[in-house]
Amino acid sequence: MMVRLKQNPASVFGILGVYFLAQICVRLLLPHSLELDESAQIFYAQWPSLGYDTQPPFYNWVQTAVLTVVGTSVFSLALVKNTFLFLTYLFFGLAAMRMVRSKELAVVAVFGILTIPQLVFESQRDLTHSVAAVFASALFIFALVSTLDRPSWKSYAVLGLSVGIGFLSKYNFALLPAAAFLAVLFDTEFRRRLIDLRILIAALVASLVILPHALWLLNHLDLATQGTLNKLEGAGTSSKLLQIATGTASLFGALLGFAGLTFSIFLILYGRKLQETLGLDNRWSLLLGRIMLAAIGLLLLLILITDSTNIKDRWLSPIFPVLALYFATKLDQLDSRETSLLARIWPLAKFILVAMPLVMLLRVPAHGWLGDYTKLNLNYDAALQEASRHAPVEPTVILASDVHLAGNLRLLKPNTQVVVNGYRALTGPIERRESTLVLVMWRAQKESDMPDSARSWLAAAGEPRSYTGQTVAVPYNYGRDGDTFMFGYAFVWIDPKAP
């Protein structure tokens, strides 16, 4: 394989294609319970919308389209995620091939991205919107390099498309084009691309892509931003100086968490070679280095002018995958024709490509054996089957206590509407013109009674008849003998309200 990679560096994409197909197969072999982000995708897919909650809707739109065509299934979820991830590596790789003279170093850059924990593990485990944002980042870097190198109306159009997709994936994606703009300003040749009239094509395409959600955002600004602002602020601090110190420490902790492993691996594998490049740069290494520095500067400015104290490592995902590309462009400065640069990282890449599917496959049984249960260890199917045994007729609506539970139930009952109290902006006003049977389900591990939020939904839907709540103890997937999780359920007839 090493020989093939040297002779045809583009074959790295074939290797990655096989890898992501393996990851799809692994997800199908795992229990068909859902993680948080997975269940949200299934839940929201019931109502096509220009916006949903604190996250922009691009991933939802793509996932909903695939669910409509392919069907409501775990396969549809895995297919979308792994396609996005494959395209991420593809566009980063294509960008690297345009920036380096030695195409082997482009392969080194692609394998370097495999060392980022947020991409190689967390993205497979449960991320969705962040996965789309990293894809948009890769597309943006590819379009940026293409535009700076050989500008055309197509490259500007793709640049605008990537900005639009990025903004519709994660709002913090805006950090990348802002940092790239500042980086371009420092290069005399690159600055000319900013005053090229074709940049209006990029602006137009980005605006058209963003516009529908932007109109929704104007009327839902509090909903879209409040959750993120709360996470950024974290715990309150007693002084502005302490807030700045806490936020700065959080930022550098996030940098360490996101890029620390990649940085360390490149130092271990290429430390002496990188030392030789300390005084060497070309336009691409300078561009990527300035993008990362500008992003750090913008984040520090954010901390300074806001109350931000809690920067998460996954929020850096649109920016710092370029670290691997940066190291490749630095190594490309060497005059040496040494062929061992790819050979140094290939054993590690092979290990990751084989080990990660096995880790993903074994982690759920391992948690079960240890009694440290994850969301995939919960057996929603068994709980729903037990509840359905007592149904007088097939319920028209399933009312769940939370979105995570709702998504899991809709995966099992894709033809039944599944609702959660608090989402009437999506479902519309509740009007019952005839008696309706509702199956209410909630987590009864701590409280056996129906949650107040579910009672409120029932009261708003009509005149609920008397009902009796039940509980069912369900063994965990791969659980230890005797370990169970409690679900509560009730079948409630709702009559129309009297005029």
UniProtKB/TrEMBL annotation:
InterPro entries: LipidA_mod_glycosyltrf_83, RgtA/B/C-like
Membrane topology: Multi-pass membrane protein
Domain (Glycosyltransferase RgtA/B/C/D-like) ranges: 55-216
Highest taxon above the source species: Bacteria
Keywords from the UniProt entry: Cell membrane, Glycosyltransferase, Membrane, Transferase, Transmembrane, Transmembrane helix
Locations listed in the record: Cell membrane
Transmembrane segments: 12-30, 65-92, 104-121, 127-145, 157-185, 197-218, 249-271, 283-303, 343-362
The name this protein goes by in its record: Glycosyltransferase RgtA/B/C/D-like domain-containing protein
Organism: Rhizobium rhizophilum
